[in-house]
Amino acid sequence: MAQNYFGELIPITLSGTRNGFSVSYNIVLKLAPINEEYRVSGAVTVMFARETYVYSTLLKAYREIQQHLPIQSQYVIPKCYYVHQEYLKEAIALQDMTVEGYRPYVHDMFLDLDHTLISLKSLAKLHSLSFILQNKKPQQFEDIMTICVPLTENTNSRYMDIMKDRLDKALKKFPASEITPGNKPVSACMIDYQTTRKCSPAFDVMYLILSSTNSELRNKYLQQLMEIYYRTFEIAIKEAGISSQTLYSRQMFDSDMKVVAPACLITANTALWLSNGLQEEGHVRSKHVWSTKEEKDKAVEKYKTIITTMIDDLTNFGYISIDEL
């Protein structure tokens, strides 16, 4: 049920015998697109190279760190059984986490409060591992950063071009005068590391809150969401023997949230443009494109409502100024 714009996801069960005993492995095979026309820009190739690196190298380093952390501060990492990096034959064989009880959230377009809180806790644990690695093994951290480089015009101009293109398309939908539950989850497993890069952890937090919650939840629980994230991060850092005050204080986090807000809005816009069926051309297209004008008009209005509430909320929270847009 997961959406994947950059390849295929195939669930597989491998069965056999080992030392006379029956064994089976439930995996998800992630395959890159094999159509060379789709790969002409090189963006997908870079994404898969980075993701195979994350699963085979970065998360391996995180596993080693977690051996010294209590279970409550450990980040859920699927096993990676195999990676293949040959061009047009890229593949990653990952543990199928649905067998462990994890499910994609499909109840609504936006997460409810319980799922948002558990996701932010998981995100905090992931971020703490990066800080611990940088503090405990600085050379290994620097080696990793040669792959997971910050997003700039020089490192990924194609990605930034896509962001700008979707923003231009979005602005055409807005006349200037208009811009103004299931069971409770207990754990979250995050996947898809194709755009992993060195960046402020505030970007992930702001983007998750902005793109995965509705306006009502944000207005009612924003402070609680930020508090639960930072408290989880702080505890994980402390358990590694590191002071969060010197490494990444709450004041630094709050300041970063304001810095990253405009970029998060632009990135959320791109995701929503895709998910609402409005990207009809290019290598990365919407999964479901509308067939009638009435359907498209309805999707445009839905999309405009969501983006407008995002802008209103960010403005009201003091993260952006309407004059900056």
TrEMBL record:
Coiled-coil ranges per UniProt: none
Domain of life assignment: Eukaryota
Protein name per its UniProtKB record: CHK kinase-like domain-containing protein
Residue ranges annotated for the CHK kinase-like domain, each copy included: 92-239
